[in-house]
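Hello,

Our lab assistant flagged a job as stuck in the queue for most of the afternoon. It eventually completed. Since we weren't sure the result was trustworthy after the delay, we are filing this so someone can double-check. Below is the sequence as submitted and the structure that was eventually returned. Let us know if re-running is recommended.
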Amino acid sequence: MDSGQLIGIIVGIVVVLAIVAVAVMISRKRKVAADRNKAAEMREQAKADEFAAREREAKAARAEADAQEAALEAERKRKEALSSKEEAQSVRSGAQEQLRKADEIDPDVVTSEREGQAGEMPTRADLRSERTTAGPASGDQVPREHMSDEHMSDEHMSDEQRSREDVPRTDTTPGPDVNPREDRPRNL
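-- returned structure --
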């Protein structure tokens, strides 16, 4: 091997080492740049996540405040409902007391205090029958609701009225006082 070849080999090795060194440096720079970019992206993502977390915390705080407000509103409405219910009960008891007093004053209503005198006191049915037995004046028409069954003669009823009276009614429903409460006086 002559010295020219040896120098060629050494120069070749140095060139290859230089190329490898440059390649390593370039790849390191790229890796560092990529790491910087990745770190910057990660920081941006962390900032976005932090912002989203703060936003969610704010929404949660608003939702909690709304829930507390709704609870306070519900409590206020419960108190209003209770007050209205108590007021309604007071009005109802006042109305019942007024009805009881009216029944005590009304001579047509038999109350428990007047049960002993019930034979002496006329009832509403007695008063109605008295009105109908007095009879109409000549030529006067007596309204149908004031006529008793015995005073409704064929001359006062038309054919349509007769046919309605013969048909049993099936459309009637019992009223609200079918079972009157025991604490209320009953009208007879």
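-- support follow-up --
The delay was a queue issue, not a problem with the job. The result is valid. The chain has three helices and no strands. The mean pLDDT is 76.
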